[in-house]
Structure prediction request, 374 residues.
Amino acid sequence: MKKIFQLISSVQLGGAEIIAFCLSEHSDQILSQPAEISVIELYRSKNSYADQKRKELAQKTVPVITLHNGSKRVSLLISPIKLCLLILKEKPSIIHSHTDLPDFVLAVALKMLSLFSVKKPEVIRTIHSTQLWRTHHTFGRISESAYQDEPVAAVSSYAMTAYEQLRKKYNLPISQNRQIIYNGCKFPSQNPHSFHIDTQKINIAFCGRFEDYKGMDTLLEIIPEISLLYPGDFLFHLIGDGTYKKQLQQLALQQDNVILYEPVPNVSTMFHAFDFLFMPSHFEGLTLISIEASFAGVPVIASFAPGLDETLPENWPLKFHLDRKDELLAIFRNIKDQLYNLKKIREMAFDFVSKKFSMNEMIQSYHQLYTEIL
Prediction:
């Protein structure tokens, strides 16, 4: 039986990881022949979401292999060796790499295999981000130098442009075998939740990693200002984990309209609890959260950000520019004054994502890609 590795940073709540899980769980539709798909994580996330997701994958007979049990930074040193040994042992036919850190670890492992003249597996890369190696340029050069004409799938036109620009920056050939495969999204069911909803207030959710590119600067600035302008009108639910967790914990202590939650498995099935989703991102690859919210009938307050922009209709009334705080404040004022036709807005978003982000179309696209390689 052929073996396929889905290589991710870690079992966590992110668009890249969700797509890797989805491809693993739909192996019967992705593959034309019997094969085992395993999820390989560089380092181990230790939170309730990761624990529950591992159990879900185990129940669906999807093995999860952890290359390093320590920190993310150390994993970049240890994981290439571990991955190299795993490839020698398991002999996978395909390694499907998702995002920059897995790309780097795989690149180093492939270079090590070349030193010993070992046959290398086929490689597929999915580009999930519109900002590639924006700080660690040397790591990016090392990573990209290992790849030539492997199949490349980008989750958005912005992500494809980012890949092409990165290759040009390093004077490397751009893969001739590349295509855009939009992330597919299932219509979320409505599951029970444990969020502390206040029906007398407008409940706004932020869901994702607490990292700078997700707009933590905007979040930390705008919430206190909204609290002063409209005391008692808005309640912010912040769901996730990451570098800015301590700052957000401090914000929750200072503001009585902020509630912090750990990452929640299958959170899209609980979006129905909220009135709006707030996404002040600087950039995205192609964010599933926005698409899932539109399927769930929850309007998204979104920045004009690459990768996020493509998930909403062009004339979406809840978009704002990050450098125009007045636009964002106007959106909150209009929400408070009930100036939006929410029924029309929900229908507009639902129709848009239904046509553009079909789960079946994504699976068929990857099915064709895998079939050609195998």
